[in-house]
Amino acid sequence: MIRDRGRIKWTAMMLPEHVKMLRDWADEDQYEQKKELDEQEVERLNEVLAEAMEFNSNVVITHYRRQKYELTMGTIHFWDEMNKRLHIADRFHEIHRIDLSSVVDVRLADD
Predict the structure, then answer these.
(1) Where are the alpha helices (DSSP H) in 2-110?
(2) What superkingdom heads the lineage (predicted)?
């Protein structure tokens, strides 16, 4: 039975640049592809956003950022029509700016 040190043995002989490249390559495997929305989904998102803005409801927004999907919860503080961005105020009153083109899903939060 051969007992060796596995990866520890090989990393000592690698350059730091190569180790960084291998870590970056492993991170790329976890990237997610952005899905495209059809017209019906966009219409549903618009209806939910309009309802949330009208009644000042809490929403859960799923958006695509840095090759991953993120969730943002809060109320819609402002809609910037010029830059096509939503300004969301979370429960700590911190403002998050989300591009409308990156929004994948919007749901009313269950309070």
Answers:
(1) 7-11, 16-28, 39-55
(2) Bacteria
